Amino acid sequence: MSLLMDQSAEELECGMDNPVLPFLRKDRIPHIWCPGCGIGTTVNSFCRALGDSGMDLDKIAIVSGIGCTGRTAGYLNLDSFHTTHGRAIPFATGLKLANPDLKVVVYSGDGDLTAIGGNHFMHAARRNMDIMVVCINNFTYGMTGGQVAPTTPLGPTQTTMPFGNFESSFNLPFLADACGAVYVARWTVYHVRQLAKAMKEGLQKKGFVFIEAMAPCPTLYSRRNRLGDGVDQVKYFKERSTIKNGVDTKDVGLTYQGDIVVGKFVDRDRPTWMDSMNDHFGKVLGDKYETYGAHHG
Amino acid sequence: MSDDQQRKGRGTVFVKEEVCKGCSYCIDFCPTHALEFAREFNAKGYHYPVLGRPDDCTGCDNCGLYCPDFAIYGARWKDIDEKKKAK
């Protein structure tokens, strides 16, 4: 059966193919994301990061929750699982503890990770679980119809906030930093190269890695607030963002169409949950204890 | 395209017209503004990008980095020639 993503005659003649295709399930493309949605661009960056990191693809697993971003697990050509709503991090934790040689990536949206899965997020960061969390922040619940999310800034209209949002929003890098994540970065869909680099660093970092990627939601968030198309939001990201690496995460909160601070905010080392467990049991039980997953961390 | 005489610029782009959703990311963020919307549209009714100013294309693959639908990527002529030789 011929697929839409198969090589064209022109490509066959030159022996060329899209560099991200080895990381995608070709038969699933075209994907369901709307025209102008930024999630596809972040997946593109993630594929580049996978390629650049040179890691064995059999040693990487991707877990995602429910929502538009949750579809990612189905499009990547890795071992993947599409979990129940908000439970991507607990599933990933189990996966990591049962297979210590796996690099587990959680790829999910802001609603899934910080609303219904908020508690799991906090506790995985507190324990310093060795997983990488990529949070695509589009300021709304996309798949269910544009309800107000914990990341929606003050002001914009949502289906459940017809007169504008009055709830304070989360500052996600600050939340992750305060809970103890060892790597915290925020980039937007405009910063594709930096996002790919951050994802590559995250894949190689040991501990709880949190990367926030801001993406436009043209169908619900932008259209409802008359902010134009997806590309207009990306132009806003371009114009109003400033790169400040290592800045205090307290100062990187987002406002409605206001200034955006992007960059790598935190990069530190802390013993992971498994290191702490091995250390502790080694001390308490002595020679009786057999170190678990020590060679892989 | 195989003929060196017809080559323009330092690179070119490959577009999968049927996968494109016409979001215009590649057109708006092309560093040399070499891309533009086609007059034609695909089966779903989206205008896909074409290399309107091939002289300006450097094959930098910025369009490929931005494309949310994996429908476009750029390549330099020298890399294409290497691939051809390796084939």
Brief digest:
The complex is a heterodimer of chains A (297) and B (87). By secondary structure, chain A is an alpha/beta fold. In chain A, 35% of the residues lie in helices and 15% in strands.
Radius of gyration of CA atoms of chain A, rounded to a whole number: 20 Å
- The number of E-state strands of chain A comes to 8
Domains counted in the coordinates of chain A: how many? 1
The total count of strands of chain B amounts to 4
* Mass-distribution shape of chain B: globular
Q: What do we call the CATH homologous superfamily of chain A?
A: Thiamin diphosphate (ThDP)-binding fold, Pyr/PP domains
What is the N-to-C order of secondary-structure elements of chain A (H for helix, E for strand)? HHEHEHEHHEHEHEHHEEH
Number of helices of chain A: 11
Radius of gyration of chain B: 13 Å
How much helix is in the residues of chain A? Answer: 25-40%
Strand order of the largest sheet of chain B: 1-4
Please report the two chains with the greatest interface, counting residues with C-beta closer than 8 angstroms to the partner's C-beta.
Answer: A-B, 39 and 29 residues
Low-confidence stretches of chain B: none
